[in-house]
Amino acid sequence: MLGAELARALGARLGDSVVVITPQGTVTPAGTLPRVKSFRVVGVFEVGMFEFDSGLALIHIADAQKLYRLGDAVSGVRLKLDDLFAAPRVARELAATLPVDAEVRDWTLNHANFFRAVAIEKRMMFLILTLIVAVAAFNIVSAQVMVVTDKQADIAILRTQGASPASILSIFIIQGTLGTLIGVAGGLALAFNIETVVPFVERLLGVQFLDKTVYYISELPSQVQQGDVVFVAAIAFVLTLLATLYPSWRAARINPAEALRYE
């Protein structure tokens, strides 16, 4: 079985023969000759990661043992864990029990640079998005101040009808923080449907955001983490709440008599 990109590069289709040459050679009187074996393509797979799709071929274990002359032995064993984040701990425990010449590697070491880059990018994106929310909070301040200035007469009428300063304050705070709830709902809707939205936008614009020959992945996956959602929403709520305090305080301090003097 060949990866989709590898099969495309070789021009191999189902039923075609593929010749495999191993780096281990066979010593003959004429010199060292490479080991060659012909295989028939019975399937093509695509996992969505260019590294595997372009450089991985799967054969039967018995054929691999014959090709590499291992007998009944194997060159390695791969373990699959229910918790992928437990791989480093399990690797350390296995290394302590296996012989010294055995090599133990986990997925965090096989793609260490990739996952380190993802971790750095996640921290930077958190900082960038926090700054974006902060800028939006400043816009809330300016917008609320303009609303208070424009609605002074309306606020004064509410005051004369019995509205307390606390109720006026709560009205503007709710108006300023309502956008946080709308933003969280919109963000969750996009996150749950990102695998549908991104291909639609790519087809609409005629571009590909993640080129599989450049990036490790060709699709944009999304997994909603409840802790991250609550944390980001809490920061956005606090920033917008602080941004609405001053305009709301100004609205609550409006004197009805002064506001309606020239109305």
Search tags:
single chain, 263 residues, mainly alpha, 3 domains, two-stranded parallel sheet, two-stranded antiparallel ribbon, 11 helices, 4 strands, elongated
Tell me what you see in this structure.
There is one protein chain. The chain has 263 residues and is mainly alpha-helical. It folds into 3 domains: 1-75, no CATH class; 78-108, no CATH class; 112-259, no CATH class. 58% of the residues lie in helices and 10% in strands. The protein contains 11 helices and 4 strands. The chain has helices at residues 4-10, 50-53, 61-68, 87-97, 107-110, 112-150, 152-160, 165-192, 194-205, 226-252, 256-259; strands at residues 2-3, 17-28, 31-40, 44-45. The protein has a two-stranded parallel ribbon. The protein has a two-stranded antiparallel sheet with strand order 2-3. α6 packs parallel to α10 (226-252) and α8 packs antiparallel against α10. It is elongated, with a radius of gyration of 32 Å. The model has no long low-confidence stretch (mean pLDDT 81).
Shape: elongated
Q: How do the helices and strands follow one another from N- to C-terminus?
A: EHEEEHHHHHHHHHH
Strand order across the largest sheet: 1-4
The number of distinct β-strands equals 4
Structural class: mainly alpha
Number of H/I helices: 11
Largest sheet: 2 strands, parallel
* Helical content band: 55-70%
Which regions have little confidence, pLDDT < 50, spanning 5+ residues?
Answer: none
User: Could you tell me how far the N terminus lies from the C terminus, measured between alpha carbons in angstroms?
Assistant: 82 Å
Q: If you compute it from the alpha carbons, what radius of gyration comes out, rounded to the nearest whole angstrom?
A: 32 Å
Query: Averaged pLDDT, please?
Result: 81
Q: Any idea how many domains?
A: 3
Strand content: 5-15%
